Amino acid sequence: SGSGKTEILNMFKDLPNDMTYYTDSFTPASFLTQAMNVARNEIENVDLIRRLPDKVMVVPDLAPLFGMHNETLQQNMSRLVRIMDGEGYANDGGVHGHREFREECIFTLIGGVVSIPNNTWNIVSQIGTRLLFCRMKEMTEFDSMKRALLRQLKTENIFRPTVRRIKTETENLIRDLISRNGIRGKKWNTGIGHNEQRLLKIAMLISLLRASNGNMEAPFRVHNQLKNLARGRALIYERDYL
User: Do 201 and 163 share a domain, yes or no?
Assistant: First the structure.
């Protein structure tokens, strides 16, 4: 809390080319709904999964998702895992029967959460390495917090304008990167160097740390995720290699 995660996520709220799908809350059941109050001939307009291909889904607060009872959380995570595989999704329900989305759905989910209960980590480990977390540094020392509060008093009139300016600069940066590289169209130098070796080691470490009951998922998936993150950074520095 107070680490600035919401401000950071809001930087991606209005990306160019309609790249962002922003929502303050969602449930995995909404990806392919079985809602009773929606007519069969209109239900595709409600499905969340149809709005996400090639988009960045931004959810400022994931606490409602991770704060559920274990059984519900397990069910929701299982759905989310299947959807994040990007190969479509199908379900069967008592209202609309069999429903499916058979197209490719590659998207990025970024969100924030203050803390995750310990029991939740056991369930997260069971779904492998699809979800990656970055713990932001918190101010725990009184003196550091005091200095930050004094700085806030001095800059309170420029904080919001500064955030808006950085948000605009972020959008302009993404727009420029898209115009120069396209979406998933960059040609990469795929040689194996020092950074590639480091990614391999990190991917293997994450797979080991996420192992549930001694069952470790092969590191191929998380390695691909880390590679994409590294390539995103490489694009910023106008490189075609990691």
Answer: no
